[in-house]
Design goal:
Layout: H1 9-12, H2 15-36, E1 43-45, E2 49-51, E3 54-55, H3 68-71, H4 86-90, E4 100-105, E5 111-114, H5 115-118, E6 125-132, E7 137-147, H6 148-155, E8 163-168, E9 188-192, H7 193-197, E10 202-207, E11 210-211, E12 221-223, E13 236-242, H8 249-253, E14 277-280, E15 287-288, H9 296-299
Parallel strand pairs: 3-6, 4-13, 7-14
Antiparallel strand pairs: 1-2, 4-5, 6-7, 7-10, 8-9, 8-13, 10-11, 10-12, 14-15
Bound molecules: ligand MTE and molybdenum atom.
């Protein structure tokens, strides 16, 4: 018998119901804020569903969407542990309201956004993107967000801005994985400014038409579909524009394995395994990995003349 005192609420209530309750608690402030600010065509209805989402056929794949169950239970979010099931088990502990995101650095108008205001900077769209993990699996997920470029426009960059640095929240009391030095916390990622402005780069608040489950990076993350999954940092508290290249958590951990660019590239192996093939979650037979994860038409020009083996 387990010691009753040690039983987590998630073990008493079936986990998914517990998480939904947490989600509903978190969202109530959002719907109230949404009702008070009228101009946005997007509103949240029952079960945290975004209504009136514009679909984005130009930027969406027509491939089969991964089922929500897999996309929300098989995750990498080391702040909650290194097992694929840890984020699903533990992410309910993260309090996603109130939440502020600092947008700062080389900008004329730095700003602390309340998450419910950040959500309204531009109309939210649904974008169905492939996301491939450096470990060799991939998913197809309908994300909800707007182009990061829309936010960048509102803060007016200075001429010195050349890179963007994303920082995840640091809260070891709510994120048990941060109690161990698996990575240098907080999790930091980054990219070049032209990559951040590319129309594919999505500031993301939801998936499958609903607000993001905590384990997928609630309340806001970035999704950069032509790069390995770890570039798409979750649960952001800071978006900083910098003159020099950010030092990322993965580069600090293993610089010879995880480069700054980390573009999906079947021709550049990870030092410990090939990147030629991938397993789409839900499929049995492996498929070939495509250069830039199949987004070459949108992003190949960003790397003209660059040696991608050197800048991996
Ligand atoms: N803060 C933070 N962001 C993160 C990670 C992480 O460990 N911490 N893991 C990354 C990795 S390795 C992948 S593959 C994707 C997975 O996103 P998903 O769980 O929503 O599919 O999140 C990325 N973002
Ligand atoms: Mo990953």
């Amino acid at each position: 018998m387990k010691n009753l005192k040690k039983i987590k609420p998630s073990e008493v209530t079936p986990l998914r119901i517990w998480q939904r309750r947490r989600l509903l608690k978190g969202i109530s402030s959002l719907s109230i804020a949404g009702a008070s600010l009228t101009p946005s065509p997007i509103s949240l209805a029952g079960e945290n569903t975004f209504e009136g989402l514009k679909k984005s056929p130009v930027f969406s794949t027509k491939e089969d969407v991964t089922d929500f169950q897999s996309a929300s239970t098989y995750n990498n979010f080391y702040e909650f542990g290194t097992d694929k099931s840890d984020p699903y088990k533990f992410a309910y502990q993260l309090e996603t309201r109130p939440w502020t995101v600092e947008v700062h650095g080389e900008v004329k108008k730095s700003k602390q956004y309340d998450i419910d205001d950040l959500l309204k900077v531009a109309p939210l769209e649904e974008r169905i993107y492939r996301l491939r993990c450096v470990e060799g699996w991939s998913m197809v997920i309908p994300w909800v967000g707007y182009q990061l470029s829309k936010l960048i426009k509102t803060v007016e960059l200075t001429g010195n801005a050349k890179f963007v640095e994303f920082t995840t929240v640091y809260r070891p009391e709510q994120m048990p994985g941060q109690k161990r030095e698996v990575l240098k916390w907080p999790y930091v990622e980054g990219m070049r400014l032209d990559e951040a402005i590319n129309p594919l780069t999505l500031l993301t608040f939801g998936m499958y038409g609903k607000i993001l489950p905590n384990q997928n990076g609630s309340p806001v993350r970035v999704v950069v579909p032509w790069k390995y999954g770890f570039k798409s940092a979750k649960s952001l508290v800071s978006i900083k524009f910098t003159e020099s290249q950010p030092q990322t958590a993965w580069m600090l951990a293993a610089p010879n394995e995880y480069g700054f660019y980390s573009n999906v590239n079947p021709d550049v192996s990870h030092p410990r395994w090939s990147q030629r093939m991938e397993r789409r979650i839900g499929e049995f037979r492996k498929r070939k990995t495509l250069i830039f994860n199949g987004y070459a038409d949108h992003v190949a020009h960003l790397y003209n003349g660059m040696d991608l083996k050197r800048y991996f």
